[in-house]
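Margin note: ligand = farnesyl diphosphate.
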Amino acid sequence: MAAKNESPSAGVPVPGAAGPGAKGGGERPLPERPLHVAIVMDGNGRWAKRRSLPRTLGHRAGVEALKRTVAAAPTLNIGWLTVYGFSTENWSRPAAEVAELMALPKRYFESDIVRLERDGVRVRVLGQRRGLSPELVRMIEDAQARTAKNDRFNLNIAFNYGGQADIVEAARAFALDVAEGRARPEDLTAAALGARLATADSPPPDLVIRPSGEQRLSNFLLWESAYAEFVFQDVLWPDYGADHLKAALEVFAGRERRYGAVLPDDVLAAG
Ligand code: FPP
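Resulting structure:
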């Protein structure tokens, strides 16, 4: 169905934007449902380079930006946040950088798991466990188990994740179901495939954000972002925070989502 977005940016003054249902002071109303926002956390390397620092420190600063973003998201009526932490293609980086990237979830969970648990955040780590150290896999399983009953906010961390690989895995799972008699080829629908993806427990993203000025999807949520809106921001990820997220949501609020249909007014205008 065609629908104009309502702004999710509660509390953010928008000049001249007060409409029916708006709170006083030019604020827009809350959206009817929590949004799913996905972010390609890009620009750590450039952030470090500009400061003549090693790239590893850019990635560590990226973890701090993630903390700020996770803290801000629930206050902006975001119910799901999916972030891209390590792609299946990132294995091709120098070994020392890969080692640093592999250490980031540990760094994050060690400092924040108690807070995430207490604040009602459900953590899921999307992606293949193959290739991760047993210690990291244990830490991921522990973070997921400790937060499994939380339902205030959903944080998906895509780590060792690739959109194409995830679709291939889902297709393989379906093929196995057919081979073993649990499904017939004609049962394969978009819903059946989607239910076998790593993101099966989350709604499709409404908005995909990529900071750092790059304008690519880089194998992130290929299937799921079929009807997502895209916002590209000219800020490097380690500098990202609540204000950038609010600004992206303001842009999103002005988008008209048609999902391949036309608006009723446009049908009338066409006669
Ligand atoms: C891309 O920037 C970023 C990454 C490959 C890593 C992103 C990871 C984080 C921000 C922290 C993640 C935290 C957890 C808990 C997993 P880049 O290195 O390609 O930057 P560049 O394009 O400027 O070189």
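The pocket of farnesyl diphosphate is lined by residues 41-46, 59, 62-63, 66, 85, 90, 101, 104-105, 108, 157, 159, 237 (CB under 6 Å).
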